[in-house]
Amino acid sequence: MTADPSRRQRYSATAMRLHWLIALLIVTGFYLGWIMTDIPGFTPIKLKYFSWHKWIGVTVFALAAIRVAWRLTHRAPEMPSGMAPLQKLAAEATHVILYVLMFAIPASGYLYSSAAGIQVVYLGIVPLPTLIGPTPILKDVLKVTHIWLNYTLLGLVAAHTLAALKHQFVDRDGLLARMIPFLK
Length: 184
Fold this sequence. Notes:
Elements: H1 5-8, H2 13-36, H3 44-73, H4 85-115, E1 121-122, E2 126-127, H5 136-171
Antiparallel strand pairs: 1-2
Helix pairs in contact: 2-3, 3-4, 4-5
């Protein structure tokens, strides 16, 4: 008995859950980062948003590690056979860069906090080690790095989303259904 070909062409339920959970956390973290920096002064709500933003970053980092481990042990479905080689290369490169950013952004934020002399306490319970001491110059560099990595991620997520929608509504090749459980 052979496996159903449509099921072989989908990501596993675990891969889908990790994808969408990380995507939701990234969008939420970006949104919090956007609004918290516009709050003037040093207010309790601003501190709360900064904490939540950091907790999301640590969670994304951990889930990204799980996702990479899963991906290394579970093969992704093949790209559609009619997809142009350059498109396949662009998709693969985009995915690699997205994975790199899922680690680089939380790491740069974590190091930025350390360079600012602020310890990250995950969920307000678990103090994470401070990897570098307060360093004003490094703090400034890491702040800019963290911001630009986030804008790079924003651009790549937009391109990734537009490409998925193109495959769904223009190419009609079923590519989007590989990652969305309720699509056929």
